[in-house]
Amino acid sequence: MSEAVLLLAHGTPNALGEMAEYLDKVTGGRAIPREVVEELQHRYRLIGLREEAGATPPPLTHWTLEQARLLERNFLANGLKTKVYVAMRNWHPYIADVIAQMRRDGVTQFRAVCLAPQNSRTSVGLYRKATLAAAEGIEVEFIAGWAEHPVLAEAFAEKLRKVWRPACDEAGRKVPVLFTAHSVPCRTVMGDSPDPYPVEAKATARLVAERMAGDGLTGLDCYFAFQSQGVSGGPWIGPTVEDTLKALREEGHAGVVIQPVGFLCDHVEILYDIDIAFKELAAKIGLELWRAESLNDSPLLIDALADVATGRYRAGVVETVAAAGV
Ligand SMILES: C=CC1=C(C)c2cc3[nH]c(cc4nc(cc5[nH]c(cc1n2)c(C)c5CCC(=O)O)C(CCC(=O)O)=C4C)c(C)c3C=C
Ligand SMILES: [Fe+2]
Ligand SMILES: [Fe+2]
């Protein structure tokens, strides 16, 4: 019997020319208007993507592979010889292809960890479906949600501390912190089995804020908003970051620190939505905007991932799917 860990991530195109095909995967084949494809190409161009794939992978792919490498190194340092695979739902390396490779490598059992700590049916739920569909005959332990892992919270607090104190010094007063997570369509958080996602996202933020109490941050300095509402129809949950920035300005604040707690590395929602679009809006309304660095290769993040990936941390939803047909 051979065991492994599979890290699951969103996936991102390597070149602008791949955008239409990528969006087709993200939306499950639903047609996307040409102007939306062009707008997304524009945003990805601003964060460094080119027409053709270059030697350097895009940030999401780069950091995801780096996190896997560091996790494997962490295992080795603790006497564990467990291989860490990386798969993406919406782009190469696709989940089905990676699991096929794992099968060829003789893996009979693996633990799947999503690089999205809060459980939502529109990201984690889709990763789960693709994983289980490809893993027939292999025993899978699927970890859906590790939003309240204390070391994850500490990893975020470490990054927040680095920017919040200097921001307060620069502003000459306490600067509010705006925690964010990706928005989801309203329909996913309503009905008989509402997604736990918004509650889990706020739980992560609360744990981070608690760890900042010693630095002088209080609950009254903290806000939460959902960012990057999608282009597909229907309402998405809020409050939006845009409305919250305007409200903070109207309340008399001159600056804000944003920390996205739903993402574990840099990608377009951080490098474009926050660093370009929200910064432009903030400048327009007279608000200074600082952003906490993404976790990327944070050693604390890798410690938290190791805990989840070895099963030492089991507070999230863990589902064991027995090997079919063996
Ligand atoms: C909790 C939910 C979601 C997370 C986390 C998330 C992360 C994430 N998304 C992208 C890139 C894109 N996502 C897009 C659409 C989209 N995303 C979600 C939810 C989460 N995404 C939903 C529900 C949808 C709508 C899907 C549909 O069928 O229409 C798109 C398409 C353009 C758009 O609608 O904005 C892109 C591109 C990344 C890179 C990412 C985190 C790494
Ligand atoms: Fe998305
Ligand atoms: Fe998005």
Automatic annotation (TrEMBL):
Pathway of action: Porphyrin-containing compound metabolism; protoheme biosynthesis; protoheme from protoporphyrin-IX: step 1/1
Single annotated GO MF: metal ion binding
EC number: 4.98.1.1
EC main group: lyase
BP GO terms, sorted: heme biosynthetic process
Chief place where the protein resides: cytoplasm
Keyword field contains Coiled coil: no
Gene Ontology CC entries for this record: cytoplasm
Binding site for Fe(2+): H182, E269
Keywords: Cytoplasm, Heme biosynthesis, Iron, Lyase, Metal-binding, Porphyrin biosynthesis
Localization: Cytoplasm
Catalyzed chemical reaction(s): heme b + 2 H(+) = protoporphyrin IX + Fe(2+); Fe-coproporphyrin III + 2 H(+) = coproporphyrin III + Fe(2+)
UniProt cross-references to HAMAP family, sorted A to Z: Ferrochelatase
Protein family (similarity comment): Belongs to the ferrochelatase family.
Summary of the function given for this chain in its UniProt record: Catalyzes the ferrous insertion into protoporphyrin IX.
Protein name: Ferrochelatase
The organism of origin for this protein: Edaphobacter acidisoli
Gene from which the chain derives: hemH
